[in-house]
Amino acid sequence: MIRLAHLFFYLFLFFSFPVLAQNFSMEQVAKFSFPSSLTSSPVENQIAWAMNEQGERNVYIANGPNFKPEKLTNFNEDDGQEISSLQYSPDGKFLVFVRGGDHGGGNANKPVNPLHNIEIPKVEVWKIDLGSKNVTMIGEGNNPVIGTPHLLVYLRNGGVLSQNLEEKVALKPLFETKGNISSLEFSPDGTQIAFIDNRSGHSLVGVYQTSNEYLKWLSPGFYSDQSPRWSPNGKQIAFIRTPGGSGASLPVLEQRHSPWEIWITDVSSGEGYRRWKSPVTLRGSVPTVDGTYNLHWAANNQLIYLSYEDGWPHLYTMGAKRGASKLLTPGDFHVEHIKLSPDKKSLIFSANYGPEPQDQDRRHIGKVEINGAGVEWLTQGKGIEAYPVFIGKSDNVAYLSATAKRPLLPAIQWGGKELLLGEDLVPKDFPQEQLVEPKQVSFMAPDGVKVYGQLFEKEGGEKEKPGVVFVHGGPQRQMLLGWSYMDYYSNTYAVNQYLSNLGFVVLSVNYRLGIGYGYEFHKPENTYYKGAGEYQDVKAAGEFLADLPQVDPNRIGIYGGSYGGYLTALALGKDSDLFKVGVDIHGVHNFEGRYSVPEGFEVAPDYEAAKKIAWESSPFAFLDSWKSPVLFIHGDDDRNVNVSHTTDLIRRFEEKNMPYKYLMIPDETHHWMKFSNMVKVDKATADFLEEHLMDR
């Protein structure tokens, strides 16, 4: 009788209180598919991409009209060796790619070794013969470029090497020069190579000609020249010119215009002229967005470039010889991922534009003719579409596509219909149908700026749930209403989904300094090491979350990586009463070092004030008020944020006898190159937040 009474009691509890069962693991949701390096054959209806499948990275192709994916390589180990720089030869007979390195980090030429091999892997150039399907390692190197028809050139140890892809001969050194070579660009006929030579304080546009034993320098000056682009006839080169040298010690806390110009130079004579100068306004400054200047030499002798001059990053066109610039993409949206068509008469791009307010936090594909006929939107709806490419010589396009629940996959627009590729590449136990659709929210910062975010919440659970604020890095990023087109943020999207599945209400905040909301939001005053003004957006996100009726205001946590780790540490140091716990993943912790000790007489007039503000913008300055538990995570081969930022902060924690937990991963970079390391970091993050915030 007693046991029966106990049974009725437990049944009463079960049906009287909402239960939120966890129905998938971190390992399962971390198995999201992630394609990258999408490219297309210049002559065939064929596309290729790299696919990361739980750390196994391989090259796939798909042929029209059915575009069934076919795996060409067999790198079947979670070894942390990424695939990048995937490209076709001009005749479509070969694919070339780079294996190894960290091309999202500060030194892509440096190998990564998260497996701790006693022989460190190399950064290597590989080729695939698409006729025989043979896969061959060419040699150690990086930054490959293919000329007509099969001449491959790439960089190694400061020199340029070459090889004919059809021949099995030793590599041939092409040329060497002083400085650091980059931006190799073949001329249309394949007989010349333009390049940039950075010589510390200035950089030059150079040309190598197969018929000449000497290099040629084009319009050399005491400037920083970059982004060389050949004219269609191969007689001229357009390039970007910015100031060289270090300049005077002007006030460092003031915002000022960052100038840039478009130059055109004659390859034969080496003489050039300035074709365009950026407007002398803050908005007219150097665009710090995807592709930066996005300079192209298009058909009808038109130059294409991207500028923020009207308040949004937009495409402009102008004649190479004369005429004013014309805006190609008017509207309140952010243009990125730009590709010129094979006939050089149109461009495709992604942008946060659409008929719904929520499209501001999505990406869709647009197309615009160089003649300025207006933007045609090729995709719309609730999806995320990015990195478009034209397929062969047709108007059909391919792109990477995701939704709120389905992770990124390649997609084709073929004959007006969308064809999704590789759905069977998503693991069967990936919990796609159990994921939530985040909701767009907005709130006001204390100074009146409107801030956006995405709210992740699963139905049911506690009457008052714990909340977590997620803070992205960059900071030039935008979190979206779906799986991100960047691998790092597809991972954090997976973590946010896992946390909401546990019973958290998660708010991903798009604080100022991020992209997608215009120039003034992207480039505000008194932010970063000049005052950390963006932190008020993060605090406002925590307060917005705490004010929700379904959230317990006494159980708010925070986590973020990189710049998001910095803002997480700042939140824990400044507002421990609001943010009860946090996970700081490879965060920046000390900005005082932004200003070197001045030498000589000339010093910025606000130098001392700037040093003080930089210190007061750093988490180091708030250790005395830091009361919340924290987990520090960092890999010690991080090329984006040196591990010393975390090492030094932990040292100060120990000197003050402050409690903390940590997870250090030897030989890992900023981007968790090894899948098992990524899962370890994700699980440690979620477990720490659950331990301190979940009322079990």
Q: Note the quaternary state here.
A: single chain
Give the biggest sheet. 8 strands, mixed
Amino-to-carboxy terminus distance? 29 Å
Record field, number of beta strands: 40
The portion of residues forming beta strands comes to 25-35%
Binned, the helix content reads: 10-25%
Q: Which stretches are low in confidence, meaning pLDDT under 50 for 5 or more residues running?
A: 1-19
Structural class: alpha+beta
Read across the widest sheet, the strand sequence of neighbours is 33-34-36-35-37-38-39-40
Please report the number of helical segments.
9
Look at the structure and give the mean pLDDT. 94
Give the overall silhouette: globular
Rg on CA atoms, Å: 26 Å
Structural overview:
Helices cover 15% and strands 34% of the residues. It is built from nine helices and 40 strands.
Summarize the structure.
It contains nine helices and 40 strands. By secondary structure, the protein is of the alpha+beta class.
